[in-house]
Amino acid sequence: MYHRIKGTRDILPDEIYQWHYVEDKIRNYLERCNYQEIRTPLFEVTELFARGIGTDTDVVSKEMYTFQDKGHTSLTLRPELTAPVLRAYLQNNLNQLSPITKLYYLGPLFRQERPQKGRLRQFNQFGFEIIGSEHPEADAEVIQAVFAIYQELGINDLKVRINSIGSRDSRRYYLDLLHKTLAPHAGEFCATCQQRLERNILRLFDCKLESCQALLDQYAPLILDHLSNADILHFEEVQALLTAAFVPFEIDQKLVRGLDYYTRTTFEITSSLLGSQDAICGGGRYDHLAEDLDGPPTPAVGVASGMERLLMILNEIQAIPQPTVDLIYIAILGDNARQAAFQLVSRLRAQGYAVEMDFMRRSLKAQMREAGKKGADWVIIIGEDEIQKDQLIVKNMTSGEQKNLQLSRATEQLETILR
User: Which of 197, 235, 309, 327 fits as disulfide partner to 118, beta carbons 3.0 to 4.6 Å?
Assistant: First the structure.
């Protein structure tokens, strides 16, 4: 027997309604905000992610599923969606349609990391981007919109953490200062952080070890103290707009995010219902990613949220209602009734009804039992005697009431009963 690959999971029929419910809520809210859905390929050339995300990030250096096709081109299953979305934006000249482009997506991603609760090797995200605006109102809308989506889904246990890592010029100065300050203490950090100190120093703030965080608290300068005046003004305006929209937030000066393309605003939303790995979404501004991908200067800001982690929270608080479908079950007695029943099934479905019929040629008692298991609201019984009399029997499974209708006028007469 074959088994699914480690770090993947099957989404079975008894839970897929949860995904549909959440996806519908997301689409509904984002389309109210005038975002349009985009779908990109599951794989891209590897260089897109190496240049876009950064070769020294954990995603690119450790976690990507990369392979060569028959033409010896290096391809990668997408580990994130911002770079593919911006590639599609540039390649398809979407900037010519409007100065501002608002896009959203839902779909699977792939990272070869250690599977754990809410974190898989094939996982799903929803996210959205505002491309074309350098102004803080775009940052604020992205944060406000994802916060509002969670609220509409019924999640109230949320913490919004924001920071600014400055423009590239501000960050370049800060990184030099950070390295000079921490280099004398390099031996006190863990082995991973010692590598990060030389290769990608901002990742030090991501370390989970309390000892490394204590060293940062003791020695590291904070980036908010080294921003340009323009960066400070931008961050202050983001805060003012979030306050105006009643979005509660706190400033986290260690929040730097895990991808190299971020500039200025970074943010995460967390929930204590997820335990120690409490991030439900993250995002920020990436004003230079288009240039890194050989496009024109194009400011942008976006967010991505893990669907599996979101569903964990919604199941914890029991926020997803059970689906309700008005189901009609057609029970068949005798070979001659089967064709008439199948014709009726087709006609009722064409009128918009949910209809099921017996495929096992069982007894009427067994078919009624099956209708009960499926939660049918109505059972229509068609037998050979009924066909000869041009009749069918309709039974209300809640009240037990039965009626005889004319088979040749079934859809017309059923309309008055079923509606």
Answer: 309
Q: How many Cβ atoms from other residues are within 10 Å of residue 362's Cβ?
A: 14
Instruction: Tell me the pLDDT tens digit for each residue of 241-284.
Output: 999 999 999 999 888 766 677 899 999 999 888 876 788 999 99
Whether 366 shows a pLDDT value over 90: the answer reads yes
CATH of the domain at 24: 3.30.930.10
Q: Is the dihedral angle over the CA atoms 59, 224, 290, 124 positive or is it negative?
A: positive
Which residues neighbour 58 within 8 Å (Cβ) at sequence distance 6 or greater? 203, 258
Percent residues over pLDDT 90 in the chain:
66
Asked whether 378 and 418 are in contact (CB, 8 A), the reply is: yes
Domain that holds residue 407: 327-412
Strands 354-357 and 327-333: parallel
pLDDT at residue 278 in the model: 82
DSSP element (H, E) containing 325: none
Same domain for 258 and 355, yes or no, is no
Distance of alpha carbon 195 from alpha carbon 204, whole angstroms = 9
Same domain, 66 and 27: yes
In this prediction, residue 382 carries a pLDDT of 93
- Write the DSSP assignment of 128-176 as a string of letters: EEEES--SHHHHHHHHHHHHHHHHHTT----EEEEEE---HHHHHHHHH
For residue 54, give the nearest of 296, 289, 303 by alpha carbon: 289
Share of the chain above pLDDT 70, in %: 99
Task: Name the token pair of 87.
Answer: 């590639």
Neighbouring-strand partners of residue 394: 380, 403
Q: Quick one: tokens of 117?
A: 């609760």
pLDDT digits (tens, 9 = 90+) for 60-95: 888 999 999 999 999 999 999 999 999 999 999 999
**Residue 240 shares a structural domain with residue 126:** yes
Please indicate, yes or no, if residue 192 is contained in any of the structural domains: no
Q: What is the pLDDT of residue 17?
A: 95
